[in-house]
Amino acid sequence: MSRLTYLHVITNGKQELREILPVLQQVVQGGADTIHLREKHRTDKEMEAWLHAITSVVPKEKVIINERIVLAQVYGCKGVHLGQQAISEITTSKSKVALADQLLGCSIHNMDELHRSMQIRPSYLIAGHIYETKSKPGSPPRGLELLRELKSILASSYQSIPLLAIGGIKPEHVAHVLEAGADGIAVMSTIMEANDPFEMTKRYKKALDEGRKYA
User: Fold this and answer.
1) End-to-end CA distance of the chain
2) What does the pLDDT average to over 94-102?
3) Among residues 88, 22, 28, which one has the least CA distance to residue 60?
4) Collapsed DSSP state (helix, strand, coil) of residue 127
5) In the structure, what pLDDT confidence band is assigned to residue 32 with cuts at 50, 70 and 90?
6) Backbone angles phi, psi at 187, to 5 degrees
7) Residue 1 pLDDT > 70
C-alpha cells in the first residue's frame, strides 16, 4: 500500500515579490502541497506585505512562513516553520508555541536537534541537507543515512509525524529519499529558479507518486 507523500516548495530569499508571485502560482498549479516562505532578511512589515500579496493569488491554507508566528496567526496561514535558534530559545525559556489548528515545523540536521525539536511537539520535520547543494557551499551533505536514523528514532521513541528531506534533491533522487524513510521532500532553487516552475513541480510530483509505491 502506498503512503501519503508531501512536496514543500521553499522560497530562496533571492527573488523580489513581483518576481515570485507568478512563480508561486505556477508551483501551486503544478501540484505543490505547501509554499514555504523563507525570507529571513526581510522585516515583519515587508513580510506582511508579502503575505497580503501572496495570499491573494495562492490559498492561505498552502502557505507556511518561517519564524513569524504572529503573522502566521493573523493571516490564517497553514503554519509556521522554526529553525534551531528559535527552537533553542523556546526550549530554554520553557515557553510554548500557541498555534490554533496550524502546523508547526522544525528544521533538523542531527539527532540532538531531533530530540530538542520534539520538546515543542512539531507537526512535521525537515531534515538535511541530504545531497550537495549550492545553498550550503563547503558543507558536506549528511546523506540518506541521516533519514534512516531519524526515522528509526521517531518510530521507537516518539509519535509518528511526517519527515521531509531537503538539500540538493533532484527528481531522480526522490525514490531514494523515500526508500530511506522520508515522507516527502522540500525543494528550493531547483523549482524557484526553473525556467518553467510549473513543469518542474510536476516532475517532482510525478517522482513522488512513483516513488511512494516502492518505499
Assistant:
1) 10
2) 81
3) 28
4) strand
5) very high
6) -125, 140
7) no
